[in-house]
């Protein structure tokens, strides 16, 4: 076999292996979509500053990675009665999704009787709001709907301030 034929055979073999390797990696991914909704609550606004959505596929404390997030301040009360919004979407490895974490900013508030109060969120900005999922993701596209239950999450403190102790549920 001459050098030119050997080169063509090696190039063909390499491109075939490369094609199947890329196809295999693509087959091992899924496009995950995380949606947000809420149950009714007696306030005019419950604003949560969501900066990032992270997912984790392991049981240990490592392994968090961010998926592309539509960061912003979300009024939870706009997402009631079957209405939701897409918070984040992007490719993630297929397999058992263990947890989702919302990393929050500091612009969280509640509006009651036309008065805005800051919402204090213990450890919300540092460790984030976590929800256990334990769901095997589908092959190509999968969606998760998270109910951020404002009614169960808002606590009026004795000093008149408000804190958010999040109750997050998978729907």
Features:
48% strand, 4-stranded mixed β-sheet, 171 residues, disordered N terminus, 17% helix, alpha+beta, 9-stranded mixed β-sheet, elongated, single chain
Q: In one word, what is the shape? A: elongated
Estimate what percentage of residues fall within beta strands.
Answer: over 45%
What is the strand tally? 13
| Whole-number total of structural domains | 1
- Count the DSSP helices: 2
Helix coverage percent of residues? Answer: 10-25%
List the uncertain runs. Answer: 1-24
Question: Which whole number gives the mean pLDDT?
Answer: 80
Going by helix content, strand content and strand pairing, the class is alpha+beta
Largest sheet: 9 strands, mixed
Task: Give the topology string: H per helix, E per strand.
Answer: HEEEEEEEEEEHEEE
N-to-C terminal Cα separation, in Å?
63 Å
Cα-atom radius of gyration:
22 Å
């Amino acid at each position: 076999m001459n050098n030119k034929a050997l080169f063509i055979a090696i190039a063909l073999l390499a491109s075939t292996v490369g094609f199947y390797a890329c196809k295999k990696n693509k087959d091992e991914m899924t496009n995950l979509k995380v949606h947000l909704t809420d149950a009714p609550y007696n306030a005019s606004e419950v604003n949560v500053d969501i900066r990032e959505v992270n997912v984790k596929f392991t049981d240990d404390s490592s392994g968090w990675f961010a998926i592309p997030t539509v960061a912003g301040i979300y009024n939870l009360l706009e997402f009631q009665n079957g209405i939701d919004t897409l918070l984040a979407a992007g490719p993630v490895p297929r397999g058992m999704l263990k947890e989702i974490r919302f990393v929050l900013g500091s612009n969280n508030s509640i509006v009651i009787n036309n008065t805005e109060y800051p919402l204090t969120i213990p450890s919300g900005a540092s460790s984030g709001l976590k929800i256990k999922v334990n769901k095997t993701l589908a092959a190509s596209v999968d969606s998760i709907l998270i109910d951020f239950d404002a009614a169960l999450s808002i606590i009026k403190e004795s000093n008149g301030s408000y804190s958010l102790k999040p109750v997050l549920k998978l729907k």
